[in-house]
Amino acid sequence: MEQVVLAILTILIASILNIALKKFNLPTAIGYIFTGVIVSISFGLGGEDKILEHISELGIIFLMFTIGLEFSFSELKAMKKQVLLYGSLQVIISSISFALIAKFVFSFDSKTAIIIGSALSLSSTAIVLKMLNENGDIHAGYGRKVLGVLLFQDLAVIPILIMIDIFTKDVEITSLLFSTSLNMIIFFVVLYLGKFGVDKYLEFSVKTQNQEIFLLAILFVVLASAEIAHLFGFSYSLGAFFAGMLLAESHYKYQIEADLSPFRDLFLGLFFFVVGSRIDVGIVIENFGVIIFLVIIVMVIKASVIFAVLFFEQKRTAFKSALALSQVGEFALAIFVLAQNNHFIDERVSNILSTVVIFSMVATPFIIQNLTKLADKIFKEPYREIRITSTGLKNHIIVCGYGPLGREVTSQLKSSGFEYILIEHDLKLYQEALDDNQPVFFGNAAQRLVLESVNIKEAVAVMITFHNLEKIRLIAKSVKDVSPKSHIVARVRGEEEIEALEGSCVYVVPTVGTLADKMINKLLHCSI
Question: Concatenated DSSP letters for 476-502?
C-alpha cells in the first residue's frame, strides 16, 4: 500500500511540475528529473532503486528502436562519415583530453584517468534524441551529425567495457577482441535472418485486426532484439536500434511508431525520474562550487572538441552539434559505479562525478531549446539546413482509405496530375493498393504520428473516403490538432451527419451524383 501511495504522490508531483514548466515552454524531462530529486529527498527510494533503474531502461530501448525506424541500412551507409569519422574522432580526442586532465590535474593513476576520460566522452542518447525528436530536428543537418556521433558512442561502449575488464582481470586481449568480433558477426546474422520471420509475425498479427495483438507483437520484437544484443555482449539500446532499422522499410513502420510512442514517452519519463533520484543533495551542497566548476569545464571542453572535429563542415551546423552533444551521458553513471566497485575510485569521487553528469544532463534541454537563438547570435550568415522528411512530399493530398470510393478518388487525382499519398489500416486493402502501384502507407490515420509521418503540415487537404462517422470524427480531430489549417473532405449520408461533422471543421459531401467528382470539386473550392 505504501508503494501505491508513493506512486500516486510521484505522479501528482510530476504532473504539477510539468504543467508549471510547460508555461515556460520547458521540456518534460526537466520536470521528471526534479520530481526524482523531490521524491528522493522527501520519501527516499530505498531498495527500489535497482528495480526502477531496470524498468527505466525500457525508455532508452524504445527510443532507439523508433529512431532506428527512421534510418534504413542504406541511409546508415550514407552516414558513414558522421558515424565512423566524426564519431571516432570525438570519442578518441575527448577521452584523451579528459584522461590527461584527470591524471595531471587531479593526480589519478593512469588506469583510473583513462576510465574517467572514456566515461566523460559519452553523451546522453536519451535526452538528446528525445529533444531532437520532439522539435523535429532529428532530420536537420546538425541532427544527423549528432545522431551519427551518438551511434558511434553506443558502439564505443563495447571497447570501454572490454578495457575495464582488462584493467580489472588478468585476461588476454587477443582472445577478448576475437570473441567480441565473432559475437558481433553472429549478432548481425541472427538479426538479418530474423527479419523475414518478424515480417511474417507482424503480418499475422495485423490480419487479426486487433490493435492489442499488434501492439503485443511490436513489444515482443523490440524487447527480443534488445535481449539478443545483450546476450552477445552489446547494449540493449544498440540492439533495439538495429532492429528498428531492419523494419525501416516495413509496411508497418509508421503504425509501429505511432503505437510504441506512448510506451516510449512513459518509460523515458521514468528514466529521467531515476536520474533525478540519484542526485545526493548532501554531496551537492558540500561540493557545490567544485561540481559547478567541473560541469562548466567538462561541457566547454567537450563542445570545443566536437566543434573542432566538425570544423570543416558548415560552421553553424558544427556549433549546434557541439552544444547538443556537450553533456555527459547516462552510461557514464554506470561506468563510475563499475569503477567504484572495482576500487578505481572511492565513493566520494564517484558521487561527485555522477552529480556532474546529472547536472550536465539537466542543462541539456535548455541548451537544445535555444540552439537556433545561440547560433543566430554568433553566425549571422543566412543558412537553411537541409531537412530529410519521411515522404519528401509537399503540397500533396492525403487520401484515407482505399475502398471503392478511395480507388475512384485516387484514379481521378492521378489523371488530374495531383500529387497524393494513401493511408490504409486494413491489410487486405493495403495490399491491393500496393498491387495497384499506389503510394500507400500502412497506418491508422487517426493517430498523430502517422499523420506527421506523411507530412500533414505540408499537405493541402485530407480526403476521407470511407464511411464511419466515429472514425471520420477522430481523424478530423487528429488532423486539426496537428495541422489546424488543413482542409478536410469527407463523405456523409444525410443532414444529421452533415451537422455532426461540421463542428469538426470537415467539408462534407452530400451523396448526390458521383461521389468522387463531388469530393474533388469540393477540394478544389477549399482555397488550395
Answer: HHHHHHH-TT-EEEEE--SHHHHHHHH
Phi-psi region of 392 (alpha: psi -120 to 50; beta: other; left: phi over 0): left
CATH number of 397-524: 3.40.50.720
**How many Å apart are CA 98 and CA 160, to the nearest integer?**
15
Which positions ≥6 away from 432 have C-beta within 8 Å? Answer: 402
pTM confidence score: 0.63
Q: State the span(s) of the chain assigned CATH 3.40.50.720.
A: 397-524
Rg over CA atoms, the chain: 26
The gap from C-alpha 52 to its chain's centroid, in whole angstroms, comes to 21
Q: Please state at what angle helix 288-309 crosses helix 315-324, rounded to 10 degrees.
A: 150
Distances (CA, A) of 446 to 152, 248, 424: 36, 21, 11
- The DSSP call for residue 159 is H
Task: Supply the mean pLDDT for the chain.
Answer: 82
Kindly state the percentage of the chain with pLDDT values over 90. 20
Q: What's the rounded Cα separation, in Å, for the pair 159 and 118?
A: 10
Is the CA virtual torsion 344, 350, 356, 360 positive or negative? Answer: positive
Give the Cα separation of 512 and 528 in Å (integer). 23
Give exposure, 330-342, as e/b (b: 16+ Cβ within 10 Å): bbbbbbbebbbee
Task: Report d(CA 110, CA 150) in Å as an integer.
Answer: 26
Residue 90 clears pLDDT 80, i.e. is over it:
yes
* Window from 146-150, 216-220, 482-486 with minimum mean pLDDT: 482-486
Residue 337 CB partners (closer than 8 Å, separation 6+): 350, 354
Range 479-503 burial, b when 16+ CB lie within 10 A, else e: bbeebeebbbbbbbeeeebeebbee
Q: Which of 63-72, 205-214, 271-280, 455-464 has the lowest mean pLDDT?
A: 63-72
What type of residue sits at position 46? G
Q: Are 68 and 82 in contact (CB under 8 A)?
A: no
Exposure of 163 by Cβ count < 10 A (0-12 exposed, 13-18 middle, 19+ buried)? middle
Thinking of the domain 2-378, which architecture would CATH place it in? Up-down Bundle (1.20)
Instruction: Locate CATH 1.20.1530.20 in the chain.
Output: 2-378
